[in-house]
Amino acid sequence: MHQPIDDHFLLRYRQLLDAEDEAFDEVEHACEEGNRSHFDAEMVVWQDTVAKKLNFLTSAGIEIPGRSATV
Predict the structure, then answer these.
(1) Which one, of 13, 6, 9, 3, lies nearest residue 52 by Cα?
(2) Where are the domains of the chain?
(3) Which residues of the chain carry a pLDDT beneath 70?
(4) CA spacing 20 to 30 A to 58: which of 1, 11, 39, 67?
(5) Distance between CA atoms of 44 and 24, rounded to whole angstroms?
(6) Which residues contact 21 (CB under 8 A, 6 or more apart)?
């Protein structure tokens, strides 16, 4: 592991988790509304938040199965 798990790490990871949760909620609402263009736009936002979270973990040296350690 490259980066120690400390308060700063946990705070940043919590922010990323919260952003992902919020983005997923928007995807869910758009799906329930049946609005395809809104759904597509929210999927892009959600995918971006997931990528940011995974990149953060990878850059911290946390190995994620099925994901290359080099980003």
Answers:
(1) 13
(2) 15-59
(3) 1-3, 67-71
(4) 39
(5) 10
(6) none
CA 19 to chain centre: 7
Amino acid sitting at position 63 = E
Tokens of 44: 């892009």
The rounded distance, in Å, linking the Cα atoms of 4 and 9 is: 7
- Token pair, residue 15, equals 């922010």
- Give the per-residue pLDDT at 34: 95
CB-count exposure of residue 44 (10 Å: 0-12, 13-18, 19+): exposed
Alpha helix positions (H), 1-71:
7-33, 36-59
Q: How big is the chain by its Cα radius of gyration, in Å?
A: 14
